[in-house]
Amino acid sequence: MVVNFKVYKKSSPNNKVHLYMGKRDFVDHISAVEPVDGVIVLDEEYMHDRRKVFGQLICSFRYGREEDEVMGLNFQKELFLASEQIYPKPEKCDPLKPQLTKLQERLMKKLGPNAIPFTFNIPPSAPASITLQQAKSENGEPCGVQYYVKIFAGDSETDRSHRRSTISLGIRKVQYAPSKQGNQPCTVVRKDFMLSPGELEMEVTLDKQLYHHGEKISVNLCIRNHSNKVVKKIKAMVQQGVDVVLFQNGQYRNTIASIETAEGCPLQPGSSLQKVIYLHPLLSSVQNKRGIALDGQLKHQDTNLASTTLLASPDQRDAFGIIVSYAVKVKLFLGALGGELTAELPFVLMFAKPTIKGKLVVQDSQADVETFRQDTIMDPEEE
Q1: Is 68 left (phi over 0), alpha (psi -120 to 50) or beta?
Q2: By CB atoms within 10 Å of each CB, which of 205, 233, 278, 279 scores lowest?
């Protein structure tokens, strides 16, 4: 059986440094994050002169619009999660070298003696890759958290790298859905009225706790009207909660999908109603709405609604992160004097963990395709 891999390649503008990586999505397993590993290939001239080549793993957090950056104001922070000299290896380096992955071994065998492996580690507390959707009228980089691997030739780690000998390749820190469903979400809310006997009761249940992107959500309603008020209409919606941790008042909500119905209404005193409402949260329904949280976006690739952010504990909130949550909210409207009855149920919206299939493929920035024997290599688009 042949194991298939996709491999990305990117070269510096002077074609002296080449970067190969097996993937651009690195999975956060809550307790640990997959290591960022790859191989660089240096030109013979750089090897002969023993030019210093450094590698860095950078987390970039933009928390304000680029077009508002005036008078030297900057709304972007860069965190260096890892920085080391890849070639030549410094004399005082860690003797415990990380074990090479199978992909690194295979690439080094194919690419020859000028191939040098590297491995960076992302802290588990580092924020997930999330982008906030811009309005159509906005230009510049969107707000959000982005990661990229930077490889450059220079005199030191802090040296201002020369553009012609620098490679920057965007990557993402992602989370996938747990393998097991949680408890079925269910809640019961009641409302009584001053100077009026009885109460209005609503029971809301979702068919499951964990949904995958693209799935419909079944909202089961059971309304019992023991009051003398009349239920005029029902509204159900999916809301996305966004918490920009850096700001004390950085929490807001977006409505992703909603349905308003008067079917079964008016619900008279002493009556009851059982009803199922289907909600379908999709990015296409809020395509141009500003502030919608999206999964971290790589250039020239489509994206989707951001997945729920899973935390090991509520306190594990990185100051430079964006936390996303989802909830179904149901409202009963009782008219101007009766007010409203509201119920809310949180749920999890994520992707299932993909299975790895396919040949060794490396995509090129110019979309050229090289063939290494039976394996194909393509590079990502210019970033």
Answers
A1: alpha
A2: 278
What is residue 138's predicted lDDT score, i.e. its pLDDT?
81
Identify the segments of the chain with pLDDT beneath 70: 1-5, 71-72, 92-98, 300, 355-383
pLDDT score recorded for residue 4: 57
The per-residue pLDDT for 64 is 83
**Residues of the chain by 3-state class (helix, strand, coil), percent to 5:** 10, 45, 45
Tokens of 35: 């290591």
**DSSP β-ladder status, 53-62 and 196-206:** unpaired
| Nearby residues of 355 by Cβ (< 8 Å), 6 or more positions away | none
Q: Which amino acid is it at 372? A: F
Which residue is it, tokens 């289907």? 278
What CA–CA distance (Å, rounded) separates 350 from 353? 9
C-alpha dist (Å) from residue 255 to 142, 235, 315: 20, 12, 26
Cα(77)–Cα(120) distance, integer angstroms: 20
Greatest extent of the chain over all pairs of C-alpha atoms, in Å: 91
Q: What is the structure's pLDDT at 336?
A: 81
How many Cβ atoms from other residues are within 10 Å of residue 183's Cβ?
A: 7
Under DSSP, the state recorded for 301 is S
Q: What is the pLDDT at residue 301?
A: 72
Long-range contacts at 194-198 (CB < 8 A, ≥ 24 apart): 196/227, 196/228, 196/229, 197/227, 197/228, 198/226, 198/227, 198/228, 198/269
